[in-house]
Design goal:
There is one protein chain. A hairpin with a 4-residue loop joins β10 and β11. This protein has four helices and 34 strands. The longest helix has 28 residues. The chain has three domains: 261 residues, Tachylectin-2, Chain A, CATH 2.115.10; 96 residues, Carboxypeptidase-like, regulatory domain (Immunoglobulin-like, Sandwich), CATH 2.60.40; 111 residues, OmpA-like domain (60s Ribosomal Protein L30, Chain: A). With 525 residues, the protein is mainly beta. Strands 5, 6, 7, 8 and 9 form a five-stranded antiparallel sheet that branches. Strands 10, 11, 12, 13 and 14 form a five-stranded antiparallel sheet that branches. Strands 22, 23, 26, 29 and 30 form a five-stranded mixed sheet that branches.
């Protein structure tokens, strides 16, 4: 190889290195987390009060205490002025073979609150709750376990957020009174004593999974992830709900944070650092299948949906819409053909009853007071009735669009009773089940020739025989209620299938949740 060739190769290598360096620098300035994200699963980002350290949980990393099987260790990244450094392992004091993560800091940053309890000299958690570690001259001290009375989490996942000023800890767990899987709870510390957790209620919680909650700086806004809402774009979307009083049980209807945040992937762990104008979250969108840390540094656009609502349309106020009235409009269509349903009856029940009807195209429009929580029933000849909920008592828009799809009545049609819920492991119906059961009663009364078969299903966990027996007992409970409302027992069959007819795999809790269901099948029309 001659001298000129060597010089050419040397210069090309230097140019390539310089190009890669500049490209990396530009990417780092565009995305300050470019060095943080890796082929592993990054979750639970928390920034220290001084803004200089980022604590995150990385799962299944070979350098974790438990190696590739470790559900998550704490790693630490440092702010370099233009981006966050590649994270380093948080060490054996903060990490063990169980799930480890930071849930919050004291205002001065000298106390760090952690997921789970730490067992001295052992690599796994023996008790449940949270812990606290203190800053020392040599790092962080061995975590001290915090006792929360009646704390229980049956789920393999655990997430939460500590609001130090309020001394409030919001968390997701499968506990005593959970609707199905993970629900959101809050507990408070008063003079060193933590109170029994409070379920945040079914305006926030659904029969599916709610996870990774956090609070705004004033404690009035709750951010969380859910896979149990119709407005979701993917498996988990991020939502926000406002606290309406000091009971922590009354919340506004959660709003989806919109497509600038949510995607067809899985979004979790939203953290809103309002003083820095920075919102952190994790997403699997355009990743290698695991969570990456993302940021949003612009003002959030108007959230695009409220539960079953398709659009929220801001209009100029006119003489027909009062300050306490919302114009609600939309379309009722056949779920199979998408053709508009004529003369569908849409009933809104609150303190009073309001009724709208669809026209030849299936469209409807009605003015309703904006200070109510409504139960909605949609009925149409030849179609299975539909029930929904609508909370607009804190609604500030003038026009709301809400569309409904009705299933035609035909032999073999299967209707999911998604709002019919039981206490875990029992045949006790939850109070919110009766609205939908009453819609079934009305449907059967309006269609006296229709006969149905109730079907109860569980997942495949536990004893097969006991699961089948429980599902049969639940079907019998629903049939008894329908008969008590005047429906002939001859029109209702019922069978519990236990876990023998899954509609999804049983590999994950999300899939098992889909398998736990109550349905009815039309056997005669």
């Amino acid at each position: 190889m001659d001298k000129s060739t060597l010089i050419f190769l040397f210069l090309r290598m230097r140019f390539t290195f310089l190009f890669l360096f500049v490209s990396s620098l530009a990417l780092s300035q565009t995305n300050p987390f470019v060095l943080v994200n890796s082929p592993y699963d990054e979750q639970n980002p928390v920034i220290s009060p001084d803004g200089k350290s980022l604590y995150l949980t990385i799962a299944n990393h070979p350098q974790n205490v438990g190696g590739l099987k470790d559900p998550g260790d704490i790693w630490i990244s440092i702010w370099t002025g233009g981006g966050w450094s590649a994270p380093v392992h948080g060490g054996s004091v903060l990490n063990n073979r169980s799930l480890n993560g930071v849930v919050g800091f004291s205002t001065n940053g000298d106390e760090m609150y952690l997921l789970n309890h730490y067992a001295k000299g052992e690599g796994v958690v023996k008790t449940q709750g949270i812990s606290v570690s203190m800053r020392s001259g040599t790092g962080w001290t061995t975590p001290r376990n915090i006792s929360i009375p009646y704390f229980l989490n049956r789920s393999s996942s655990f997430s939460g957020f500590l609001h130090y000023e309020l001394q409030a800890f919001v968390f997701a767990a499968e506990a005593y009174n959970t609707l199905g899987s993970e629900d959101l709870y809050v507990t408070f510390n008063a003079e060193g004593r933590w109170a029994e957790p409070i379920n945040l209620g079914n305006m926030v919680n659904t029969p599916f999974q709610e996870m990774s909650p956090s609070l705004s700086s004033d404690g009035l806004k709750l951010y969380f992830a859910s896979n149990g809402r119709r407005s979701g774009l993917g498996s988990f979307d991020l939502y926000m709900s406002e606290r309406l009083d000091d009971t922590w049980k009354n919340w506004s209807t959660p709003i989806n944070l919109g497509p600038q945040i949510n995607s067809e992937g899985r979004e979790l762990f939203v953290r809103n650092y309002e003083d820095q104008g920075l919102l952190l979250y994790t997403s699997t969108r355009n990743s290698d299948g695991y969570g990456d840390i993302r940021f949003y540094q612009d003002s959030l656009q108007t959230p695009f949906t409220v539960d079953t609502v398709v659009k929220m349309i801001p209009l100029k106020r006119d003489s027909m819409v009062s300050d306490r009235t919302v114009r609600l409009k939309g379309r009722v269509s056949n779920s199979k053909s998408n053709v508009g349903v004529v003369n569908a009856r849409i009933t809104f029940r609150a303190d009073s009853v309001l009724i709208a009807a669809s026209n030849e195209a299936g469209d409807y429009e009605i003015l309703i007071p904006s200070t109510q929580v409504y139960s909605i029933e949609v009925e149409a000849k030849g179609h299975v009735s539909l029930s929904e909920k609508l909370d607009i008592h804190t609604f500030e828009m003038q026009t709301l669009e809400m569309n409904f799809k009705l299933q035609p009545i035909e032999v073999g049609a299967v209707v999911s009773l998604k709002s019919v819920l039981f206490e875990i492991g029992t045949t006790d119906l939850l109070e919110e089940s009766y609205d939908q059961l009453n819609v079934v009663v009305d449907f059967l009364q309006a269609n006296p020739k229709v006969e149905i078969e109730l079907e109860g299903h569980t997942d495949n966990r536990g004893d097969r025989v006991k699961n089948q027996l429980l599902s049969q007992q639940r079907v019998d409970k629903i049939k008894s209620y329908l008969v008590s409302k005047g429906i002939s027992a001859r029109r209702i069959r019922g069978k519990g299938y236990g876990g023998s007819r899954p509609i999804a795999t049983n590999d994950t809790e999300e899939a098992r949740r889909l398998n736990r269901r109550v349905e009815f099948r039309i056997v005669k029309d």
